[in-house]
Amino acid sequence: MKRIAIVDDSSTARMFIRRCLEIIGFSESTFVEAENGKSALEQIKQEPVDLLLTDLTMPVMDGETLLKWVKASPSLCDIPVLVISSAGNPAKEAELLKAGAFGILSKPINPSTLMNALQPLMEKKENADE
């Protein structure tokens, strides 16, 4: 995955997610960071990404709205979206999966949980490359 978007209103959280991604093998990736869904959407419309990780609760545009915009856009709908949330609400998680998220991770994340969440995506990419 060449370009990865990390969307969170906390710069510390963005830095931590980026570090986790680097630890699990994405150190060669280009990271695009945004502090809300609106800013992320503007950036990925200009230059699409291979993966989008988004927080759920943010000002201006939350992660759920961002997910719905991405999945409704013909040019962006193939981008896998991983939602990272501190909510831990099973009904909300089911709703997000139905809206097109490929996975939901609960905060706090660590390299191991991130690796497990991204494994199916990485295997899919490996199979496509063969």
Rg is 13 Å
CATH top-level class? Alpha Beta
CATH third-tier fold name: Rossmann fold
Query: In terms of quaternary structure, what is this?
Result: single chain
Fourth CATH level, the homologous superfamily: Response regulator
Approximate strand percentage: 15-25%
Low-confidence runs of at least 5 consecutive residues: none
Strand tally is: 5
Write the layout of secondary structure elements.
Layout: E1 3-7, H1 11-26, E2 30-34, H2 37-46, E3 51-55, H3 63-72, E4 81-85, H4 90-99, E5 103-106, H5 111-129
Parallel strand pairs: 1-2, 1-3, 3-4, 4-5
Helix pairs in contact: 1-5, 2-3
Characteristic terms for this protein:
130 residues; Rossmann fold; 5 helices; 50% helix; five-stranded parallel sheet; single chain; alpha/beta; globular; 18% strand
